[in-house]
Here is the input.
Amino acid sequence: MEQQDRSQTLVGGTPAKRVTRREALKRALALGLSAPTLAALLAACGGADAPGAPAASSAPSTASSAAPATASALPAASSASSAPSAAGASGAVSPVARATTQAGGTPGGKLTVGLGSDVATLDPHKSTSVVDRQVYQTLFDKLVDIDERLNIVPQLATSWQIADDGKTYTFTLVEGATFHDGTPFNAEAVKINLERILDRANALPRRGEIEQVTKVEALDAKTVILTLSQPFAPLLATLSDRAGMMLSPKALAEKGDDLARQPVGTGPFAFVEWVKGDHLTVKKNPSYWRKGLPYLDEVTYKPILEGTQRLTGLKTNQLQMVDSIPSKDIEATKRDTALRVGNIPSLGFSYITFQTARPPFDNKALRQAVAWAIDRDGINKVVFFGSGQAGQTPIPPSSWAYDPAVAPYKQDYAMARKKLEEGGKAEGFSFTLLLTNSPEAIQLGEAYKAQLQEARITANLEVLEGSAFTDRSNKGSFEATIGTWSGRPDPDGNVYNYCHSSGGLNRGSYKNTEVDRLLEQTRAVSDTGERKRLYTQVSKLVTDDAPHVFIRHAAEIKVWQPAVEGFVHIPDGMMRLTTVSLKR
Amino acid sequence: MALYIMRRFVAMVPVLLLVSVIVFSLIHLTPGDPATSMLGEEATPQAVAALRAKLGLDQPIPVQYVKWLGSVLRGDLGRSIRSNQPVAEAIAERLPVTVELAILAIAISLLIAIPAGIVAAMRRNSILDAGSTFVALLGVSLPNFFLAILLILLFGVKLNWLPPFGYQPITQGLGGNLQRMILPAITLGTALAAIVTRMMRSSLLEVLDQDYIRTARAKGLGEGRMIRAHALKNALMPVVTIVGLQIGGLLGGAIITESIFVLPGIGRLLVDAIFQRDFPLVQGVVLFVSLAFLFSNFAVDLAYAYLDPRIRYS
Here is the structure.
């Protein structure tokens, strides 16, 4: 009740319409308001931001767009308080995407897709940037793929068998597939590709993902056997991404480093040209092994750095589909009847990582104090316009391993103070928070700073340019840092790297032998139910140790014109265009 | 004259060398090395070491520099370590966009600035003068990106006259090319026009104070004729200097304008290369941009001789 009083003072104190968003944020954070109150406040600031609207994603705009500014403050607040479940519902079903998947497509047509940045390399085994993967979906096939529910489904491998000890995988390959240069796809090609990744001398970034594989044998033309040094349950999920993408052995032998700009795969589309910074074009592969597919004749990818410009492109028909738009534009875009918005939970998470090897954060109680001082819902609503959802573990709601019961923290300054006392810093303490120079990261840093200040914790922000930031954080040279992980379909890809003492992204030197043991066990067992149980245990231990504070799971957003049909929105956010067609 | 040109060329060499040393050291001293950024989040120390060795980054920086300089002197700028594209090819691919944008922006700025500057000088302290001063101030103060967004909203979205972004090579049709270049050119041109207008006005006022102008006036020469025949040519000297410097800058690419309008020009090439720590590409582009700058200054010096016959190069 106290909170409500405060919010009324806030809203009543100033004519509601004149409170700017930033102003409201500042005041709200200062007062330590919880999410629903904040939402009410923001709703009062202007109808456009009313968080009650998300359910109307694909509905015609009439009813929901007329959100009144001041009078609706209270109703908006009440619907906002149930926002997480609403978001979950609209996300899980994604009505637009589902409705159109079954329809057979009209062949022909050219699609132009807007991406957030330019592709770095066209050699999937060398790729480390997310945007590359968008283009690979058309050029390359993978051994297996994932579906909307993150199940593993066949692609170049039609079936597979896993030995009881989990150390031998036998794949049966599709017949009749050829690479764009005419080379037949067969077991030997798989062997050459995987051995290329595994060869240490090649120093390829994807090696770590499949390093458990010790031997690749081509039994006959369509059977491949992988032998592992130890059981590795996430292997199939890993092969649904870059490590499982197959390049032409002939091209591998002849082109060498030039594969980075002249890709040859088996995918539904073949490479045409890449004018860096301007466009990348692929055209229909007429002899694609999936008969009758793809529908489109040509796809052009355009790197458009400005999010607003990507939207402009959609509205003016320069683009028919785009990858992600700024959080602030999501609500308005949902109300635009001329566009379709796909909004589902992503695979990733954002977090704060502590350097646990050095003071101040070698002290568990101080890490927990930070975890108690942060209002996750507030952050999601204010910095990300309510587009994602608050989170507590590295496992996103889209995953089968997600356990909503593991949610130990909420913003509670009394608890934060208690933890400070426990950590011997009753008077508070200060630390340096390392950030990249992206506007969103800076805004997020400011929000953390404001919330922590209330708990007498002073966060000094240190802002660095992207590569310099990565360099510092990879070296573990920070007290605390913030980051975002794009996520992997198998929970192992989200948890092991961050929480195992030998994990590649465990930059804060976290070590808990029990967590290590459990994480190794998750790799060894293949039963999903058993793995989920183990991940719940890990999540409990990790949230209590708090080497990272998990904050939020982003929304996975795609926007397209109504003429684009057959798009299946998969939580990894990759645009698979094989079954997409254009209505004319 | 020939001797002068020769001397200027020779003088460029140390400047270029110095630039290359500075660029080379700066990029290598910047935190974040290409091996780490190429390997991304999966970078283990062993993998980074292997890749550094493969790229030759494990050698001392002076050794790397000498090797690089050696191949540059042989005409080889190296290859991008990301896409393996030859650096020279990457620059050649982007150059037409940037050159065209620079030419159009300068043309637009001169079309606006010279008449506006002349009018402002001739009607000194009039409402026209104040108006041109105000517009010039606005032009200088308005950030590029803001003007760009306004232009896109008006012509690209509201009126739907022009595409909001994108590039089409001239070889695919001049019309389509100009449609896409005109908004970026206006964006760049207006800021430049503002500077040139002020320069034109003040230098013309100075010239109009001179004795020979008084003489011309005394002979009963009309104002228009007098400006064209006597005053303008002399007043253009400082303007040429300014425009020349701007050409050099524009050839280095207009990063913000290119980004907003999605033009694949030199500016974005350089920025992408820096962010990806693509050392050979950064070095190649910066070397090229410095060359462009030196040459445009050189061209300005030669233009002086044409504008003012008293200047002789010997």
Q: What stands out?
A: Chain B touches chain A through 48 residues (CB under 8 Å). The first helix of chain B runs from residue 2 to 29. The mean pLDDT of chain B is 85. Chain B has 13 helices and no strands.
